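Sequence and structure are no longer studied apart. As an example, we show below a sequence and the tokens encoding its fold:
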Amino acid sequence: MNRLPSLFVSHGAPTFAIEPAQAGPLLTRLGQQLPRPRAVLVLSPHWVTRGVRVAATAHPETIHDFGGFPAELYRIQYPAPGAPEVARRAVALLQAAGWPAAEDPQRGLDHGAWVPVRHLFPDASVPVLQVSMPHDLDPAGAVRLGRALAPLAAEGVLILGSGSITHNLYEFRQQVEAPGAAYAQAFVDWARGAVTRHDEAALVDYLRVAPHGQRAHPTPDHYLPLPFAFGAAQADAPVRVIDGGMTYGTLAMDAYVFGEATEAALA
């Protein structure tokens, strides 16, 4: 079986589920052209635990873990099956790498998982499971976490880090427009350069070396899925940048595809 790439996807606001804008159709096209995965394993910032948990649910529920959005969002169901056997394998890999990991038999899919995966695989036929984000995870740890799970990519599992390439919720809620977009675009440009150069040191030290790193990510949770996806890829993997545009003035929606399947799938 060919090794699958790993992905970083910006899931933006929950309204991405009903407002696909520029990014949604690009993810759907990617899902059509990549080799069909055995399962999708998602790291989302919306499931944070002590240690690491891997969802072993056979039929995960669609979790609507947000408030104050249009009623249409709460009616959406994404009935993808789970993948308990992949969960067991993931836990074994994590434990072998020194992570305190265990299965969670009840966890469903939060919006950091089902919203982007719904664009990738609209028919919900590909099994989906989540790995939790440890509460004390830092960028270097996110790279290690990705590397611990990387063998799954050679076993037909699509490893997906779901976050946002910029994520300043204060400015999103205040609807900051053009003045905020310049700083957000500067961070986007830096991130594109860092991933295409395979610059692990920069990705780990983003708060110090990236322009407007603290403003782009007042908290690290939506950034950490990026070094996670980077760590899950092979060191010399080609990188494809998917330009998802900018929503709400400051929420960038880029995605990155790390892996040998990228060039063939997207040619």
Observations:
- DSSP finds twelve helices and ten strands in the chain.
